[in-house]
Amino acid sequence: MSDHDKQQARDDTIQQHSVEALEIAIGKQVRASRKRLNLTVAALAKQAQLSTGMLSKIENGQTSPSLATLTSLANALQVPVTSFFRGYEEQRDVTYIKAGEGLPIERRGSGAGHQYQLLGHTIGKPYNIEPYLITIDDQSEVFPVFQHAGTELIYMLEGRVIYRHANKTYTLEAGDTLFFDAEASHGPDEIQKLPCRYLSIIVSESSAAQ
User: Fold this and answer.
1) How many CB atoms lie within 10 A of CB 9?
2) Is it the case that residue 180 has pLDDT exceeding 90?
3) C-alpha of 52 from chain center
4) Domain 3-91 in CATH: superfamily?
5) Is CATH 2.60.120.10 the right assignment for the domain spanning 103-209?
6) What are the residue ranges spanned by the domains of the chain?
7) What's the predicted TM-score (pTM) here?
């Protein structure tokens, strides 16, 4: 798979998670509005001319309701359609990741002993911020070399690595930071102490803004 295909797959995954988050937020707002009026699912479904099964799916964030459906629900609940998006607007810039639960990402070099976990992402911004937790727990002789748009910051958490950027190398240990132009070739050159863990934060212009 080419780098472009990997980036597209990663973007698709992030987009899917954004859609799921929106569906859940809408469902919560619909349920909360229904309960404020002391309506049952059946009663609201009848007023909005929906099936109880469809309303149940909407409230549980299991489907993407059309604008017409949201309008019918808003009329039945006597609230503006925009009220259904409040939860998403309030939560979209917050990502809470429990230890060990970052989204696994396939990147060049990922596999046994090389793990990349996405810790969050931006939504609807003119820039992309991608924070990763990278774990290397096996000794390899060959490591991937990366080149991509944007600026990257690496913060070492554990272990020791000789990290290459362009034609220079840097010894990074716990607490060390490397901040660089990511368009130059870069990547681990040699792992000197395992396990090796570091944060990688990539900032780049959003493709939508280009």
Assistant:
1) 13
2) yes
3) 32
4) lambda repressor-like DNA-binding domains (1.10.260.40)
5) yes
6) 3-91, 103-209
7) 0.56
